[in-house]
Amino acid sequence: MRFNVDYDLGHVVRGWVVPDNPVAISRVVVAVDGRRVAEVSATHSDDAIRRNGWHSTGQCIFEVTEASVPNLASVRRLEIYDAETNVLVHRRAPRDGLVQERVLLVNTSIRPEVPIQTAMFDHFRQSYFGIGGFSEEVMRVVLEGPWLTSCFLSGALIYPRYEGSLQPDRFLTTCLVHDPFVEMATRILWLRSKALTAADPARNWRLGRLAEAALFMADQDLDDPKSLKRLFRMLPEPAYHLLYNPLTRQFGTKLPDDRLHPGNSIVAIEILARVGIVGHRDFFEAFVATVFDRLGIEATVPAPEPIPGEANTLANQLRGLKVAREMLVFDVAMTDAVRTAVAKGWTL
User: 332: how many CB neighbours lie within 10 A of its CB?
Assistant: First the structure.
């Protein structure tokens, strides 16, 4: 999928969406103040789209007018989504107070940084969450689209793969790292929470190859030390891949399936050092305050979501397991370095 917005003149919004299916007619959904009010199909063609081989006919251009959305010119909060993927194509928002920058928050946890996303949303014209799950084409659009001048992105993307599009003159990049043992515990518990989905033939496609890992984790006794050791000896490959030095994989490789070697940890540290603002979860408020100050946002700094007691208990057990420490040796080195660095200037 590719998309572009040509203009928003108030009474008309024109753009194009190229669907993944090259013979389909693209459709967009229009929302006003968060409520979906219309669906508009592409009615015009662009021969350049056809010549580029993106679409069989080039019929991808849509126009949202007052015929489909009454009083369109007076609508202050308007959103247009691709009907098939639900990807945000355009957002009209009041200009007052919007940050005129592109900002990326790299999620390093399997759980999204919801408090930060919520705090940022109203300060940008367009926001994209969960970008790690976007297709390659959509990623290129949101990273390189020239009209996205007030844009906040967040997600667990493989950073080196897109670093060329994330240069400091185009993006403020930010990253919040987590304690590796807490993150490993969170990932194990996340897998367990997906067991019902994995067992349902109608829904397990959502987990992909992690369905097997979720079913495996649901059968494990996480309270018994001997069972916990046995868990690591019997890990299915997808679970091992999810738990083995995930931070190093995120910053030291270019493809999700790349194998990790000691050299990747060196690459990861070098690339992490090039990120604009790096923080540690132990200094959450200081990290957010620094980002707000850099962007000129005057707002209350949100509190972090509390770490569940179950995750903290499991994390403490994992710290005592040699096999768990060996699986996180690269990530521990990276996060310890970050924590030491930020502790010099930030306070808990």
Answer: 18
Are residues 251 and 214 part of one domain? yes
Q: 160-178: per-residue pLDDT in tens?
A: 999 999 999 999 999 999 9
pLDDT digits (tens, 9 = 90+) for 105-146: 999 999 999 999 999 998 999 999 999 989 888 898 899 888
Name the domain count of the chain: 2
138 in the same domain as 52: no
Q: What are the CA-CA distances from residue 145 to residues 126, 216, 266, 329 (Å)?
A: 12, 42, 32, 38
Report residue 344's pLDDT band, with 50, 70 and 90 as the boundaries.
confident
Residue 86 shares a structural domain with residue 103: no
CATH number at residue 231: 3.40.50
Is the domain of 133 the same as that of 154?
yes
The pTM for the full model equals: 0.88
Is there a single domain that holds both residue 83 and residue 152? no
Q: Which domain does 47 fall in, by range? A: 1-92
